[in-house]
Design a protein that fits this description.
Largest sheet: 6 strands, mixed
Distance between the termini: 89 Å
Radius of gyration: 31 Å
Mean pLDDT: 84
Number of helices: 13
Number of strands: 10
Strand order of the largest sheet: 4-5-3-8-9-10
Structural class: alpha+beta
Order of helices and strands: HHEEHHHHHHHEHHEEHEEEHEE
Shape: elongated
């Protein structure tokens, strides 16, 4: 059998590759990509690690086969990241092993399939159990140790030698590898979750759950359709009429309830692709991408009407509520600051008209045409 240092070197090299995987996971998770693309990227990263591991294997006695860390990588990919990433890893390992060919082909394929299967079992039945991570990692490693059964696919006269010399290392590397990998991945995913939560918190209004101004600046470039078939974009800027009086008369707790009530009424009448933002106080913005001027006017008027007719109960009274809306439509891409400025002018006109009104501005290149 090869000396112990060769086994240790094979394991350490694979762990080093997996540490690089954790870094890659960080980079992938920090990008705003779809889940499918993330799975594909992580599957590709695991595939690279598998290929590197299999390219420098341990040669078994009498050149009866090879041993490497492919089973550990396939099993942890399936266990920690699920069936999509696990399947990509398994297919990579299988294809590479088929390319190596005989001897020991059947034993190698059996080890891959067993590790993949055990990884999925752990993923669905153990991963989310309320047990300490290190204990669950030990269970995963023990389950991946089932790859030792591949020994019995080797020539019978090698069983005893492989069982005495190779099997202990296979079990030890599976358990220790699972402990290390899961610890690294769990720590990184936890950090990413906290970072994402902090990012969401910084860009969200706590009272209404809407984006705040910072959030608007962040998402605005991504919500607009600047394609040649886009009819245009619109921005609604509104506030609640006499909101300060409501606060002074009924208290800030009622004022907060009024804000949430208005948000609920407006949100129910927007399209899924529209972006609703609280700028501060009782001032709100709605970005309407990919919309014609006529449709934008319809939505603005609908929002005004639904708030006017909703009412708000305070004790045994129904408190009348209304909003004034300033809106602007542009047939060409425009900066959000410019649209807010135009809409603010329109909102001022709506207030001058007596409140509970919509004033719409159509922006045509450098010309502004007010439409009541």
């Amino acid at each position: 059998m090869p000396d112990v240092m060769k086994f240790v070197s094979t394991f350490v090299d694979s762990v080093a590759v997996l540490m690089a995987l954790v870094l890659m996971l960080s980079l992938v998770q920090r990008k705003s990509r779809s889940r499918i693309l993330k799975h594909a990227l992580m599957g590709g990263v695991f595939s690279v690690a598998i290929i590197l591991s299999m390219s420098d294997p341990i040669i078994l006695p009498q050149k009866s086969g090879v041993f490497d860390m492919r089973a550990l990588l396939v099993g942890t990919a399936a266990g920690l990241l699920g069936p999509v990433v696990g399947t990509i890893a398994m297919m990579t390992a299988t294809a590479y092993r088929l390319g190596i060919g005989q001897p020991g082909l059947v034993a190698g394929l059996v080890g891959i399939v067993l590790s993949y299967g055990m990884g999925l079992v752990w993923h669905y039945f153990v991963k989310d159990m309320p047990v300490k991570t290190w204990k669950k990692s030990g269970v995963l490693g023990g389950m991946l140790s089932v790859q030792v059964l591949g020994i019995f696919m080797m020539p019978q006269h090698l069983w005893a030698e492989l069982w005495m010399n190779l099997a202990p290392f296979m079990v030890a590397s599976s358990i220790l590898g699972a402990l290390i990998i899961n610890h690294l991945f769990s720590g990184e995913i936890s950090f990413l979750s906290e970072a994402e939560a902090s990012k969401i918190d910084a860009n969200t209004d706590h009272l209404t759950g809407l984006l705040n101004r910072r959030g608007l600046d962040l998402v605005y470039p991504n919500v607009l359709d600047h394609g040649p078939k886009s009819p245009g974009q619109a921005l609604l800027y509104f506030d609640i009429d006499l909101f300060k009086t409501t606060n002074d008369t009924h208290g800030h707790a009622v004022g907060d309830d009024v804000l949430r009530h208005v948000v609920d009424q407006i949100a129910a009448n927007l399209r899924q692709k529209d972006t609703f933002v609280r700028l501060g106080g009782d001032e709100f913005v709605v970005v309407l991408p990919d919309i014609s001027c006529e449709e934008a006017e319809t939505i603005a008027e609908r929002c005004r009407c639904v708030v006017e007719h909703s009412g708000f109960e305070v004790g045994f009274k129904v408190l009348p509520i209304s909003i004034s809306v300033g809106a602007v439509w542009s047939g060409t891409p425009a900066r959000v600051e410019a649209l807010i400025n135009f809409a603010d002018r329109a909102l001022y006109q709506a207030k001058e008209k007596g409140r509970n009104a919509v004033v719409f501005i159509r922006q045509s290149e450098k010309t502004l045409v007010a439409v009541a």
